[in-house]
Amino acid sequence: MSQCDRRRTETRRSRPAAQSPALAAGLAALAFGVVAGSPFPAMAELKLCNDTASRIGVAIGYRDKSGEPATEGWWTIASQTCEVLLRSEVPSRLIYVRAIDYDQGGSWTGSTQLCTRKDAFAVTGVRDCRANGYQSEGFMEVDTGGSRKWILRLTDQDKKEGR
Predict the structure, then answer these.
(1) How much is the mean pLDDT over the chain?
(2) What residue segments make up the domains of the chain, in order of their start?
(3) CB-based contacts of 13: which residues, under 8 Å, 6+ apart?
(4) Residue 6: what are its φ and ψ, rounded to 5°?
(5) Are 90 and 26 in contact (CB under 8 A)?
(6) What pLDDT, in 10s, does the model give residues 61-83?
(7) Up-side HSE of residue 47: CA atoms within 13 Å toward CB?
(8) Are 80 and 125 in contact (CB under 8 A)?
(9) For labeling, which of 8, 57, 91, 143 is most exposed (least CB within 10 Å)?
(10) pTM here?
């Protein structure tokens, strides 16, 4: 098992493949300006690279195949490393991402409000976060343009101060 595989196993909860929608896939790629389209369906994936000096936590959102809002998180990604968050087709053209700098504070956020939780979570079909025991937090919107393969890079320059 490679160090990257071991870290993912230790930092990310297990979940059924059906709950791991391609959602993460296109997420923040455009927001961070590093996008690569792939003509090969078998190579669909979302990779997020943490180009900061800190560990970060990442949550993603999207609309599932039935059009319901879905979010999941948290992936912990070490400084100066990349992790594949999704190895399947992006479920919708618009993907949403929220990331938190665990070591120095600050976050990568936007104006789209979606459900999260402090601990690991996977939420589908919930529109009133607080009434259902979740927090409502801002995610940035990323238009994937229908691409199947994305590489997202989070940098300190794009980070907002505070949490």
Answers:
(1) 76
(2) 3-155
(3) 120
(4) -65, -45
(5) yes
(6) 988 888 899 999 999 999 999 99
(7) 14
(8) no
(9) 143
(10) 0.70
